[in-house]
Amino acid sequence: MKTIKKIFLGIWVLFSVSCSLLETEPYDFVSPDMYYNTEEELNIALNGVYATLANSSLYGDNMLGRMGLSADIGYESYSSDLSTVGDYSVSPADPKILNYWRDLYAGIGRANMLLKYINKPIMDSDTRDNIYGQALFLRAFYHFLLVVRFHNIPLILTVPENHNVEHMQIPQSSMREVYLKIIEDMETSAKLVADAADIRSPGRVSKSTVNGMLSRVALNMAGYPLYEPGMYAKAKKYAQEVIKTGTHALNPSYEAHFLSYLEDRYDVSESLFEVEFYGNNEGTYTTTAGRVGRNNGILCTETTMLPSGKTLVETYGYSIATHRATPYYYDLFGDGDLRRDWTIAPYTYNSTTGEKTYAKSTNIWIRCCGKFRREYEASSDRSGNYTHINFPLLRYSDVLLMWAEGVAADPENNDAGELMQAYEYVNQVRRRGYGLDINTANADVDLVVIDKTTLLQHIKEERARELGFELLRKDDLVRWGDFAKQMQLVKLQTDQINPSYSSYYYTSARNYYGNASARDIVWPIPTYELGVNRELVQNQGW
Fold first, then answer.
1. Could you tell me what percentage of the chain is helix, strand and coil, using 3-state DSSP and rounding each to the nearest 5?
2. Which of 189, 221, 363, 504 could connect to 231 by a Cys-Cys bridge, CB 3.0–4.6 Å?
3. Residue 235: inside a domain, yes or no?
4. Domain limits for position 493
5. How many independent structural domains does the chain possess?
């Protein structure tokens, strides 16, 4: 059973210091000088730093299919998000982009406050170091979520003296400076936080969390727009730190791994980091649930009473299905790859009989994200807008693929043994996808060792198959320099849709890929923030 209750208790007692880094009228409930006096208060403060992840502007709602992060593998089909970042009609005034920026900087502010007062209480030094390491990692991770989407951003490492306007004029740092600080802080964090084997909870930061995320940071730094190829070796090194622990392994079943999120269980071997949610926002815990499955599940909104005596949404779970798959994505999967029909739902729900209607293979555009289907949700009431389902931020399969990419993309790596190992790690991920023994070679699904260039192309496709709808695809395409090309490729598929087809999912697909352009590799700095902080410079093209 998850321990999410511990993460949210007491958050609002302390943290409403500001809705934005640059908000000019804060409304603190508790003066910091009166707080941070005990280990318990430090932990409550740390809970507040974690809680940022679950905000509705982030993984609690908007990022779950409403901000264009699935790129070529999936599009948004949700009328409320027309003319927003959700269908690539992006503007600097977009409220979802503004709230993303503001809430991440609010989380950074919480972390900075905790780091400032970390030495106040008398307590065990190892416990203090662990709290410090978690807060330091989260501050770095929040900067990472900002720099990959906005590029040049303010690097905020201290608590401002006050929130007067003159103290809020903070210039942007270069991307390289931000990345180097992220790496520095994460490397420090890795020395302080506990081993994953000791925590047994991917909802909390462990050494595996930090090293796995460092690998992701390094790969982003190696690619567009910084192009620092020396970071590929670093990415491999960080991933190796996770692998050599011996704590982690692929779940033999891809489906079973995702059922652990739905059924309120931890899969501590494969899940290295996940956003925690609890309950359904009713009763005692009214700010702890999220919308995993509600946003990114199989379409189910009907309240028709079924022969079973339950309504459709009570049976299968309410979902607005913001995520729909593309034919390009469907065709990436080989015959027999079990991940396809788990990631891309092969059926819809009949609102009259309650039976599952299996979709025809000729109409892929209608298919929803199936990874977080609520019909397996461990809840007696699936009809509401909120769920307890956790969302994965880092999985072991990702670590294996990042290690392999650290070899395949590194122009300086000519080690034949490492190339063989890289192919093996990719093949382990593939074997699991086909329901085969992970550690037994299989000529039917294994990639044949050729060269690094071939392997890198396989990795690009394998990451889509393995990590689809986990909000990594757009960032991957951008760092590879493939975003514009891939979005145009899928646009050509939308051009083949019969013009007479007017169902909403068809028009949504046309809008999504028709609106996307090369400038969408980066989001605009929010207009509101430009007005408050006059040191900010708008991104090119916006």
1. 45, 5, 45
2. 221
3. yes
4. 483-519
5. 4
- 479 in Cβ contact with 224 (< 8 Å): yes
Tokens of 72: 């070529």
Q: Which residue has the tokens 């507040």?
A: 48
Looking at 389, 409, 442, the residue that finishes a domain is: 389
Is 382 in contact with 280 (CB distance < 8 Å)? no
Q: How would you classify the pairing of strands 347-349 and 356-358?
A: antiparallel
Tokens of 240: 């190796």
CB 345 within 8 A of CB 382: no
Say if residue 263 is in the same domain as residue 220: yes
Please report, in tens digits, the pLDDT of each residue of the chain (542 residues total).
455 444 443 443 344 444 444 443 344 456 777 899 999 999 999 999 999 999 999 999 999 999 999 999 999 999 999 999 999 999 999 999 999 999 999 999 999 999 999 999 999 999 999 999 999 999 999 999 999 999 999 999 999 877 777 778 999 999 999 999 999 999 999 999 999 999 999 999 999 999 999 999 999 999 999 999 999 999 999 999 999 999 999 999 999 999 999 999 999 999 999 999 998 877 655 568 999 999 999 999 999 999 889 999 999 999 999 999 999 999 999 999 999 999 999 999 998 899 999 977 778 999 999 999 999 999 888 999 999 999 999 999 999 999 999 999 999 999 999 999 999 999 999 999 999 999 999 999 999 999 999 999 999 999 999 999 999 999 999 999 999 999 999 999 999 999 999 999 999 999 999 999 999 999 999 999 999 999 999 999 99
Task: For residue 33, give both structure tokens.
Answer: 């000088």
Domain-ending residue, one of 166, 193, 220: 193
